[in-house]
């Protein structure tokens, strides 16, 4: 089972440039969360801060009682063993074949025998559909295969928290869908806590239990998927529905003239909330709720046509 990650008042700057300030949220244990935001809003910086690769200017990140923003190097090393990270480009060692890339964390951080390492590596490579490719070099395979190899490597230490940085970057929609299904199935099987950074609106609308959005140097919103997909908050509504009308422009923000020109324009209706993607078993994951549950509990009428094909298996 994954563990909870609690973020309180987190602020990060580079020199005089504020990246984001006073970010507070909780990644619930065992749930899938997605972090969105326009380019340059510090999503990858947020991931690196969560794992302690970057120190915040102020604030706290609590994981199993340890504040990684203020803990010692030894404590940070111990907490990092809870994490698996899939970097944006896979971060494979180009001179190693896929087997040795996936085995690297086990050889570096454990005293397991080579036979035990082989058993674990092949198990993880089977999970991501790479059995038979273990002798290939990263330069000999597609971008999608490199992503899956990176995911296998992130899994070998059985992490309780998985951070995934733009898994859809450089992938076509079909490969993105396959990779999403792999992550959903992993969450069903082992219940790690996921945080996925993405620009892919379809992924954000169909995969996670919770969605967050960074915008204009702050956390615009974080909460259950249905809350954000039914939200009238202008920046959230614009981004999650890929609309041109709203505060986001070609630069991060539209200027006053652009906003004035849009004044009085009728916003397009919110699109229907889609069914959340199921694991391959067809059953709800342990943290997955029935379609429309959040809306019913909070008296929210979802957009017409929402949850239209809901036939969901029980847990």
From TrEMBL:
SMART domains, sorted: AAA (SM00382)
All residue ranges annotated as the ABC transporter domain in the record: 5-241
Q: Which GO terms describe its molecular function?
A: ATP binding; ATP hydrolysis activity
Q: What is this protein called?
A: ABC transporter ATP-binding protein
One Pfam family it belongs to: ABC_tran
State if Methyltransferase is listed as a keyword: no
Q: Which organism is it from?
A: Kribbella soli
Quote the PROSITE patterns the UniProt record gives. ABC_TRANSPORTER_1 (PS00211), ABC_TRANSPORTER_2 (PS50893)
UniProt keyword ATP-binding, yes or no: yes
UniProt KW keywords? ATP-binding, Nucleotide-binding, Transport
Q: Where is this region: Disordered?
A: 276-315
């Amino acid at each position: 089972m994954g563990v909870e990650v609690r973020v309180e008042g987190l602020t990060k700057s580079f020199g005089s440039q504020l990246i984001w300030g006073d970010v507070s949220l909780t990644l619930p244990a065992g749930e899938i969360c997605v972090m969105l935001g326009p380019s340059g809003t510090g999503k990858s910086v947020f991931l690196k801060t969560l794992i302690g690769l970057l120190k915040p200017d102020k604030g706290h990140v609590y994981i199993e009682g340890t504040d990684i923003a203020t803990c010692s190097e030894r404590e940070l090393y111990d907490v990092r063993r809870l994490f698996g990270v899939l970097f944006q480009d896979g971060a494979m060692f180009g001179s190693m074949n896929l087997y040795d890339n996936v085995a690297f964390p086990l050889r570096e951080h454990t005293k397991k025998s080579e036979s035990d390492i082989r058993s674990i590596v092949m198990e993880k490579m089977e999970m991501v559909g790479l059995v038979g490719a273990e002798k290939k070099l990263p330069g000999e395979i597609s971008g999608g295969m490199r992503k899956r190899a990176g995911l296998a490597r992130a899994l070998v230490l059985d992490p309780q928290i998985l951070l995934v940085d733009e898994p859809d970057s450089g992938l076509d929609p079909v490969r993105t869908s396959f990779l999403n299904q792999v992550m959903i199935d992993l969450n069903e099987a082992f219940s790690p806590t996921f945080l996925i950074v993405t620009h892919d609106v379809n992924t954000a609308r169909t995969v996670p239990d919770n969605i967050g959005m960074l915008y204009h140097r702050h956390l615009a919103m974080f909460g259950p998927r249905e809350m954000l997909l039914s939200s009238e908050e202008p920046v959230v509504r614009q981004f999650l529905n890929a609309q041109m009308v709203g505060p986001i422009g070609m630069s991060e923000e539209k200027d006053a003239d652009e906003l004035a020109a849009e004044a009085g324009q009728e916003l397009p209706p919110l699109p229907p909330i889609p069914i959340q993607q199921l694991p391959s078993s067809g059953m709800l994951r342990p943290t997955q709720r029935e379609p429309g549950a959040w809306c019913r509990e909070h008296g929210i009428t979802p957009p017409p046509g929402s949850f239209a094909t809901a036939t969901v298996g029980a847990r």
